[in-house]
Amino acid sequence: MGAVAFIVLLLQVCISHAWKCSEAPALYKVQQVDADLGKVLAVSGNRYAYYLNGLRWNNLHLYNVKHITTGTTGTWMVDSKNGLNKLVGGTFVKAPGLSVIQAHAGGKDFLVATNGKRGYCCRTSSATTYKGVGSLSWTALSVSYQFKQFSCGRFGCWGVDIKGRVYHAQSITAANCKSVGWRYISAGMKMVEASSDGLVFGINNAGEVFLSRTYGVGWYKIPMCMPMRDLSYNLGKLWVASVSGLLMVCTH
């Protein structure tokens, strides 16, 4: 069976449940995807960053990209040296100070990031107005958990620690980054995506995709035809990148 025929067969399996999935515009071995405010960004297998323009991917001409995210505070990129950069006037400028391994800009007007040990929040006034001069103002969210991944959405923030345990803070105030009510949710996850639409998705260590509508309590499995590595949800579309680098878009 040829590679094209095999992909078609997989996609037919993918539409056999409530979520209908189809192949997204092709991009070389997608490693990470992020969607918010109608924008879709991705990092390819050769670590270039792209944005989706209609049915075509436009190269942002960035190399050695580890992670990219967009939201109300702007578009941000983590480079291979764990430096955080913001898109300003069509060019990414580095924000000196905190070294991070992952960032998420999808919260309510604030930016969160983690250095692999602790989660941090950057206030609205600092993140949205940053233009490449000076530094960002960070506030530690919690000293109790070693977070490797963060995501914030309509109903608070989620963090995944180095052991795959998920924690949730129901409220983080954008004005001062004060977090309230951290609590343990579940285990066995390698990432969680909290969307601005209010839904929460997760991928477990086996690459299985889950959805929760109740703050992560009670995960509903979304059958997929292959193990997944990353996902993002916005405006009714679930973008999922497989371990092999195939990008799909699913609707419910």
From TrEMBL:
Highest taxon of source: Eukaryota
InterPro entries: Beta-propeller_rpt_TECPR
Any single Pfam family the record assigns to this protein: Tectonin
Swiss-Prot/TrEMBL keywords: Signal
Signal peptide per UniProt: 1-18
Record protein name field: Fish-egg lectin
